[in-house]
Amino acid sequence: MKYSPKVARAAVAAMFFMAGLVFASWASRIATIQQKLNLSDAALGAVLFALPVGLMLSLPLSGWAVTKIGSRKVVAAALALYGVALVSLGLADNVFLLTCCLTVFGLASNAVNISVNTQAVATEAMYTKPIMASFHGLWSLAGFIGAGIGTFMIGKGILPTPHFTGIAIVTIITIFICWKYLHHDHNPESTGPAFVKPDKSLITLGLIAFCSMVIEGAMFDWSVIYFKKIVLAQGAWIGAGYTAGMCFMAAGRFVADWFSHKFGLKTTLQVSGFLSTVGLLTVVVFPTLVPAIIGFMFVGAGISSVVPMVYSAAGKSTTMKPGAAIAAVSTISFLGFLIGPPVIGFLAGLFTLKISFIFLAAMGVSVVVFSTKAKI
């Protein structure tokens, strides 16, 4: 059964929102869990590497499932698993269990990412204007709200387990409400090959998004720790940089479609990389509360439009069908989102946390370079 564009859009938007809320809930409590298990920065980085391991394990499964079963069933099942895995992260009482739970969390996150963006492509096709960025804006808005909830929980001394359980319950309820309004996309195309090699243009788009999402992933996992250990923020202020970044990321994504239409896709991506670089260097050079908050505002604005614009461009590929192109670019880019945090942990252990943020600034420069070379 088909529903109106507005109803379908609302259902897909809810999936994006809950996916963002689940991940933000985990990110907002990483420092708490690090303290609970008495992990060093290097040890935390090693544990966080379980996330990209889970992603890599899910790559063939997620691609096959979306192609053969349909993104509707996959996004519902994967988002439910995402919520359950979140609860398990709060329950983990040793490094081994936390690592195992993070692996499952990473597996679910990639399955959600690929399937929900495939749903977004189908929804955008129902409109005569681009709306992809607005979906990602809701994901970021959920990150902002999740950060606020996490900050509140920290301030009240509420442990991660009840916090995560509440988020998981809301997630399951949302899935049940929106299930019948999602796109039924199991069609003859699903009888084709599950894996298609992306061409050079799609790989370039993937690399642009990869670099940006390295920054985004690190901001999720390390901004709170940076504010606690480098900026020396106290109490609830340790989440100020993360909250500021999420706020400006959400705002940027809600205006990204307009900006890209007015100034062009290439210029939008170049400006995005520049803003990210400036923001990260500000955080490194001026590691005090107000400048650091402003720096993260720039970072949030810089990374806001990259992923939705790249996905939109990939959906217009002339060599692959939109769903396959989105899945290919999404997989490359989300790998950066999950690899970034553990890399920062290793660099922080090898050098310092401030030095590791210079690496993130280099990723911002890379966005500018790849965008300049891209044929878009």
Let me know the average pLDDT: 89
Overall helicity: over 70%
Secondary-structure element order, as H and E?
A: HHHHHHHHHHHHHHH
How many domain units? 1
Backbone CA Rg: 19 Å
Count of beta strands: 0
Q: Poorly predicted ranges (pLDDT <50, ≥5 residues)?
A: none
Describe the main β-sheet briefly: none
Class by SSE composition: mainly alpha
End-to-end separation: 36 Å
β-strand amount: under 5%
Number of helices, counting only DSSP H or I runs of 4 residues or more: 15
Tell me the CATH topology: Growth Hormone, Chain: A
Instruction: Output the CATH homologous superfamily.
Output: MFS general substrate transporter like domains
Shape field: globular
CATH architecture tag: Up-down Bundle
Q: CATH top level?
A: Mainly Alpha
Structure, briefly:
The chain is mostly helical and 376 residues long.
